[in-house]
Design goal:
The chain contains 17 helices and 18 strands. With about 500 residues, it is α/β, with parallel strands linked by helices. The chain has a 7-stranded mixed β-sheet, sandwiched between helices. The protein has a 6-stranded mixed β-sheet with strand order 7-6-5-8-9-17, with helices on both faces. Strands 3-4-18 form a 3-stranded antiparallel β-sheet, with no helix packed on it. Helix 2 packs across helix 7 and helix 3 crosses helix 4. It starts with a strand and ends in an 8-residue tail after the last helix. The mean pLDDT is about 95. Bound molecules: nicotinamide-adenine-dinucleotide. The site of nicotinamide-adenine-dinucleotide has 30 residues, from helix 8 and helix 9.
């Protein structure tokens, strides 16, 4: 059984990959488990050498990697270069350097008398075999990218890329092999949802990125096996424009981060709330910028601003959200009409006169749309921004930084940017993940982004001690009374203030 891979910008089939069965996945898992101990035994420096070579490999193979990503996603050259190749190369360098720091043993101090004089240590060990399951919107960043810290921690990794975009992962697997990654440590198991489900059955931990609905299924399956699952799911990220905002910058960011990657970014700006005194001016600026975007089949640097949608059914979702909004009284100031052409397309679209009864303001659209609403004040903007099952990222624009930051801190989102958007994702030191269940559980990046691939071990080493500790058998009334007095003294609480 094979799966045909299509170039969504042209509709042409560009390759086929195997649709692997549960038995195939089990065999890959056995190979990976056999290879893992020697990969772990290489230590941080040995693993970093391979990871640094791969960082260089990605840079040296930029043309090939970008071409593969563009061909299977339909995205613009710059979208692939900036958000994928750039991310992947940086991530290899980052995790090679930071893994030993984030996973360093820590000496723990305790005030408990029973452990006085003993050495307490918190340490991390790789889990063994990590399963990564990814979506189609960023085949390098959001599928393969999550394998990098797992490998740096000393795990073997099996990656199940989206059936829509598996070719990038296969190319990068070739790169890892060329860079000296021992055989079996990393494997790509191509296939559909059933292959992903089979992977969850084999691994010690699953890192899933994708839709909320699939995330729920993956979490349930992981729960049955009692293995940890880290879930990066959907978003409906709000942008708030305060009356004192630099409107030019706000409009540029709105147009860019709503349309970047044809709107198929989990942290795209998906809806916008603007204080009413600047609403008209902001809408005019954004509309002009979006209307000027060049959309088409990517053909190298600078050829187009916006590519096609990557996943054919996504066009139906975008079209439904826009059509329903228009039928309910919204207006499209640019775009808003599904074109008749080869491939899978929807034009960059700005909508006004929208409200929260419309799917376009509530459900993840994941397309090149920017619905904009006027709000009375910041309080109403915060209320509407928080009126969502999602809570991935959000952004606030305003010149008064104290006020803008105050608004940011009131938003129910895992990450919030002030006078910026989306670039927080590139700071690999800064944790990223959902603040509400529909956007996921767990974090990528930062210390949490690698400790999640490890099991923790706490060590207690007793060095200076009596032959028999006073609290042990046999129990004697005099000793018990003495211990009780001591406990009373230790736990007398802080002196209260009347
Ligand atoms: P999807 O949920 O349809 O598929 C994701 C992956 O899960 C695919 O590889 C698919 O084959 C696999 N899968 C399907 N059924 C499965 C099952 N039962 N068990 C195991 N695996 C299964 O998502 P998608 O349409 O590919 O991606 C788009 C979604 O991803 C959007 O909702 C987007 O917001 C989200 N996303 C989130 C982030 C983030 O960091 N939070 C990043 C990128 C994309």
């Amino acid at each position: 059984m094979t799966i045909a891979v299509e170039n969504p910008a042209t509709g042409q089939v560009i390759g086929t990959v195997p649709d692997l069965s549960a038995d195939d996945v089990a065999a890959a898992a056995r190979r990976a488990r056999a290879a893992q101990p020697s990969w772990h035994a290489l230590g941080y420096d040995g693993r970093a050498a391979v990871l640094h070579r791969m960082q260089r490999w990605i840079v040296d193979h930029t043309d090939e990697v970008v071409a593969t990503i563009c061909a299977e996603t339909g995205k613009a050259y710059e979208d692939a270069l900036l958000a994928e190749v750039n991310y992947g190369a940086a991530a290899f360098g980052f995790w090679a350097k930071q893994a030993p720091r984030y996973l360093a043993e820590t000496r723990i101090r305790s005030s408990q008398p029973l452990v006085a004089g003993k050495r307490l240590v918190q340490r991390y060990q790789p889990l063994g075999l990590v399963g990564v399951i990814g979506p189609w919107n960023y085949p390098l960043t959001n599928s393969f990218g999550d394998c990098i810290p797992a490998l740096a921690a000393g795990n073997a990794v099996l990656l199940k890329p989206s059936e829509v975009t598996p070719l990038t992962s296969l190319l990068l697997a070739e790169g890892l092999a060329a860079c000296g990654l021992p055989d079996g440590v990393f494997g790509v198991v191509t296939g559909r949802g059933a292959t992903g489900a089979a992977l969850v059955d084999e691994v010690d931990m699953v890192m899933f990125t994708g839709s909320t609905a699939t995330g729920r299924r993956v979490a349930a399956r992981a729960a049955e096996r009692l293995i940890p699952a880290s879930l990066e799911l959907g978003g409906k990220d709000p942008m708030i424009v305060l009356a004192d905002a630099d409107l030019e910058r706000a409009a540029t960011h709105a147009a860019y981060y709503a349309m970047f990657n044809c709107g198929q970014t989990c942290i795209s700006i998906e809806r916008c709330y603007v204080e009413e005194s600047v609403y008209t001016a902001f809408v005019a600026l954004v509309t002009a910028k979006v209307a000027a975007l060049r959309q088409g089949v990517p053909a190298g640097p600078g050829s187009v601003d916006v590519g096609s949608l990557s996943f054919p059914p996504q066009v139906d979702i975008v079209d439904r959200h826009v059509s329903e909004a228009l039928a309910a009284g919204a207006r499209a100031l640019t775009g808003g009409v599904r074109p008749e052409r080869e491939g899978h397309w929807y034009p960059p679209t700005v909508l006004v006169d929208v409200d929260h009864s419309m799917a376009i303001m509530r459900e993840e659209t994941f397309g090149p749309t920017l619905p904009i609403m006027a709000v009375r004040d910041a309080d109403e903007a915060v209320r509407l921004a928080n009126d969502s099952a999602y809570g991935l990222c959000a952004s606030v624009f305003g010149r008064d930084l104290a006020r803008a930051e105050d608004v940011a801190r009131r938003l129910e989102a895992g990450a919030v940017t002030v006078n910026d958007a989306v670039v927080n994702y590139t700071a690999l030191e800064l944790p990223m993940g959902g603040a509400k269940p529909a956007s996921g559980i767990g974090r990528r990046h930062g210390k949490d982004g690698i400790t999640k691939y490890c099991r923790q071990q706490s060590l207690l080493v007793s060095r200076l001690h009596l032959r028999r500790d006073v609290h042990t058998y046999p129990y004697r009334a005099t000793r018990t009374r003495a211990i009780r007095s001591l406990l009373g003294l230790l736990n007398r609480g802080r002196p209260g203030r009347s």
